Amino acid sequence: MRKRRSIEVFSISFLDLLSGALGAVIILYVAIPKNQPKEIPQVDPARITLEKDLASSQKIIDDLKKELTEATTKIASMEKVVVPEAPPASGPDLDAGFKFKGKNIVFIIDTSYSMTEEDRMGQVKAGLKMLLTSLAGNFKIEIVQFPLGQRAPFRSMWGNIKDFTSINRSDAFEFIYSLKPSGGTPTRDALLFVLQNYDQVSDIVLLSDGAPTYHNSNTKDDIYEILRVIREQNTSKIQINTIGVGSNFLRDKLSEQYKFLSLLASENNGFFVGF
């Protein structure tokens, strides 16, 4: 880029006056007195220098105007951000990257006390909202949390799967917002509740951060016994998908929770993701 001269612009309007036709007339009017014999005007070095400076200044001003116009056009093009549209009510089959068996899904959410670590509860809430937002309106859903503190081993949002309308979507977001970590990890109770009470369900998505325990107890449940019971109870061949929450799933693949969630998914034709 060429080096620009530093110009002391005393008045843009005055420069316009001097460089315009009217300015030329005024200069001639002053330089040639009226009612005097016409003489060849003497060459004024100062005037020549002024005219050169005016011409140079006008060129620089024109260049600046051109650069300003180009910059404005470039900024305007950068501001045209494409905002993705929300999925249509009866739009395409959007599985948000997950391969579901069907469109009737029950989400089982671990709300045990350990979900307070690493803000796991916050991560699950944000991730689940994004997942639900990506689903088209022809899905049906239900959400079950486990446990409901010490009061119950689980709590369902509606008690049955419902069409994913805009109203039900809002209800689901409010339910997710209300989730608070407390108690143990009675995974067996929540899984059996869904398998025994939701006839039309095609998929289960289990989100959990820990190995199963008994309700209101820190005693660990037998993961292999749970797997056996689920195989027997899943007579409708519901696809069970699992999502492991917390850093343990990434660094310790020999942990109880990793083995349980990965085996539960593989034995029921589902996907397993850890984050």
The chain-level mean pLDDT equals 79
- Helical content stands at 40-55%
The coarse overall form would be: elongated
Strand content: 5-15%
Q: Ranges with pLDDT <50 over ≥5 residues? A: 6-12, 17-32, 78-96
Number of DSSP E strands: 7
Query: Total domains, how many?
Result: 2
CATH homologous group name of the largest domain: von Willebrand factor, type A domain
Task: Provide structural commentary.
With 275 residues, the chain is an alpha/beta fold. The protein folds into two domains: 12-78; 104-274, von Willebrand factor, type A domain (Rossmann fold, 3-Layer(aba) Sandwich), CATH 3.40.50.410. The protein is built from nine helices and seven strands; from the N terminus they run H-H-H-E-H-E-E-E-H-H-E-H-E-H-H-E. The chain has helices at 12-19, 21-31, 45-78, 120-134, 166-178, 187-197, 223-233, 248-251, 256-267, and strands at residues 104-110, 140-146, 155-156, 162-163, 203-208, 239-244, 272-274. Strands 1, 2, 3, 4, 5, 6 and 7 form a seven-stranded mixed β-sheet that branches. Strand 5, helix 7 and strand 6 (239-244) form a beta-alpha-beta unit. Helix 1 packs across helix 3 (45-78) and helix 4 (120-134) runs antiparallel to helix 5. The longest helix is centred in the first third of the chain and has 34 residues, at 45-78. The chain starts with 11 loop residues before the first helix and ends with a strand.
